[in-house]
Design brief:
This is Regulatory protein SIR2 homolog 7. Belongs to the sirtuin family. Class IV subfamily. Keywords: Metal-binding, NAD, Phosphoprotein, Transferase, Zinc. GO terms for molecular function: histone H3K18 deacetylase activity, NAD-dependent; metal ion binding; NAD+ binding. This protein is of the alpha/beta class. The chain folds into two domains: 43 residues, no CATH class; 67 residues, no CATH class. It is 15% helix and 20% strand. It is built from two helices and seven strands. The strands form two sheets. A four-stranded antiparallel beta sheet has the order 2-1-4-3, with no helix packed on it. The longest helix has 12 residues. The radius of gyration is 18 Å and the shape is globular. The protein starts with a strand and ends in an 11-residue tail after the last helix. The model has no long low-confidence stretch (mean pLDDT 83).
Amino acid sequence: MYIEVCTACTPNREYVRVFDVTERTALHRHQTGRACHKCGAQLRDTIVHFGERGTLGQPLNWEAATEAASKADTILCLGSSLKVLKKYPRLWCMTKPPSRRPKLYIVNLQWTPKDDWAALKLHGKCDDVMQLLMDELGLEIPPYSRVL
């Protein structure tokens, strides 16, 4: 939600913002209202809305995500309904037999379409769960800073 791209430039030109670029976008309407500094074309968001499939190669990089998922032994999903990602069976390694798929761990306050497949589903707030996990691992969470 902080990245908008110019798809007229080759390669696509990315603009990383410190504000939410999706304020004017919606399902099947991805233009943000800003223009590319290089070519002047309309910029678009990189969000995949409910009912859509991602069409941008970058920054979403579905190919690399699929490859990483195929090598993973664990998938950790934090704070997502997983409703958009259910349309990407390759990300979930569904072509593999169940015993060879990565273990799925979900932290979310609501039901997700993948709950039944999860090795563990925690109904909780991500910050709370991650604080407990980091404490258990003996790791510190660095302080947040908005300064880039």
